[in-house]
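Ex. 9. Protein: FAD-binding PCMH-type domain-containing protein.
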Amino acid sequence: MLILTNFAYYQPTTTADVLPLIKDGNIIIAGGSDLIPQLKCASIPAPEGLVDLSGVEELQKIEEKNDGIHIGAMTTLAHAAKNETISEKLPAVAQAARNVAAPQIRNRGTIGGNVLQSRRCFYYNQTKEWRQGIPRCYKVGGDRCLQIQNSPICRAIYYSDMAPALLAYNAQAVVNIDGKDQTLSCKDLIEAHCQDHDEKKMLIKEFLFSKNSFSGVFSSFVKYSLRGSIDFPVINFAYVCGPDTLRIFVGGIATQVIELADTEAYLKEHGKGFTESAALEIALSEMNKKNQVIRESGISVQVKRGTFRYIETILADIKRHI
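Predicted structure tokens for FAD-binding PCMH-type domain-containing protein:
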């Protein structure tokens, strides 16, 4: 399948070169594993220009500084998975990167691109010709969700593997919006993205993990999918626990990443004395209330909801490390 449109192609080498190119009509391309299929299927408007960030080395750095660990938004998933600093101090980030797709995609895909990937639905992720036979949905400018007919919003699922890990560490994003650098919480950045409220003229420069987010804590990332890491997650979990910290995030089951706040509150209240059966009941109740599961290729809604019980393994792991 070919991209049947003409557009300009820009290859800046510095952020200073990038910023003037972030304008209406242009689209930023990181690794391209999400964007290129969308252009081929014409599921997004054809751009006037593509701004390729792969040559901007300052967006690919991994550095540990006094305030924490800085990871460039253009760091490839393969590099993040193998980097010693990340593997040692941010293991959930390394594990998440290692579990994205196949090696070829990890060699191209980036952390920033994985976080800002488009939400997916099998009515939307089809060719333009296929979609001409069905009503227009919210994702392509229509007035309905084809998955949930009475839904006032698009119910396409957010499948990022990196997002739960970033949220578990309470990471921040350094971004440039309209030419000005500012720091946002990854929570705000991801929530805005999942609601299709991204800033139009924004460049994500790096992700910042403060020292207190990873010092003296245990953290991990677990993914379940139909074919190991090759597929998008059926469900994934990222969690961080320590003396004063406990965060559990679940991805792949809603339009955005879900935080199990009720479960966290119970675990914090009872500490090592929590009972796994009670924690499991609270976690399942919370996921059943907050999930937005829809029909997917290869798995039924009923089977997908059955995977919520995998939280039992996570709770047992937390029990050992809390």
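Check your answer against this statement. The two ends are 51 Å apart (CA to CA).
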